[in-house]
Amino acid sequence: MSQSIRHPEILEIARRDGKVTVEHLADHLGVTLQTIRRDLSDLADAGKLERVHGGAVLPSGTINIAYEERRRLNAEGKTAMARACAAMIPEDCAIFLNIGTSTEAVANELLHHRNLLVVTNNMNVANILARNPDCEVVVTGGALRQSDGGLTGDITTAAIRKFKFDFGVIGCSAVDHDGDILDFDLREVGVSQTILGQSRRKILLADHTKFKRKAPAQIGSLSGIDVFVTDAPVPPDLAARCTDWGTQVQVCLPDALDTTSV
């Protein structure tokens, strides 16, 4: 079966099922696993699919990828970013970690920090840091989003306003070419804006996949962020804007778990 026939068939299955797996496609189309992996990479490069562990999903537009899929998506890159972020955070300080798989990765990297006060609206972050006896964890409260353990709403923002954080660490769903920071849920956007407003130093974590995605609601701009942590070089135009804004860009290389600053 030729590529010109396989690609439309793969996209049709993805639209029907929401995702595709390498093994299922190889069996269904009667080709090798390596052929399917190349097909998925080609479709991802064309913006028609997004690669995840073991397969691919439809690219995000106005609907976010399922949380478990996001956890597996670019796990190595998120680990590299999380290590770089945790290295910026000293002991004996107050931080906020918001909803997201990248902030969960940061929580894992903070398990050996001492004398931290961590406030979060992420039940997963709270459960991770409960294992650190030298960390005081405060959960904001709010309406529980069962899909990802996030807490949002007026109760959440009211709780956040009671604090002043040394570091506010947030993730997002997408970063636009002009530096706008985007998300899907308006309630979550309000929470993120409040976190940034209550933080002395503002850190955004967004891996390279966020540059390929779109989301409808604006949190703010990279111009209001102190450190932008990502796992691949930022597009040149945006890198130049960050320099003008005074936003430090920390590029983490997942293969070597190395970092560079620009």
UniProtKB/TrEMBL annotation:
Q: Which SMART domains match?
A: DeoRC (SM01134), HTH_DEOR (SM00420)
Provide the alphabetized UniProt keywords: DNA-binding, Repressor, Transcription, Transcription regulation
Question: Which SUPFAM superfamilies does this chain map to?
Answer: NagB/RpiA/CoA transferase-like, Winged helix' DNA-binding domain
Q: Which PROSITE patterns match?
A: HTH_DEOR_2
Q: Which Pfam families match?
A: DeoRC, HTH_DeoR
Provide the GO MF annotations for this entry: DNA binding
Instruction: Specify the superkingdom.
Output: Bacteria
Q: HTH deoR-type domain: which residues?
A: 3-58
Q: Which residues cross the membrane?
A: none
Q: What is this protein called?
A: DeoR/GlpR family DNA-binding transcription regulator
Which organism is this protein's natural source? Loktanella gaetbuli
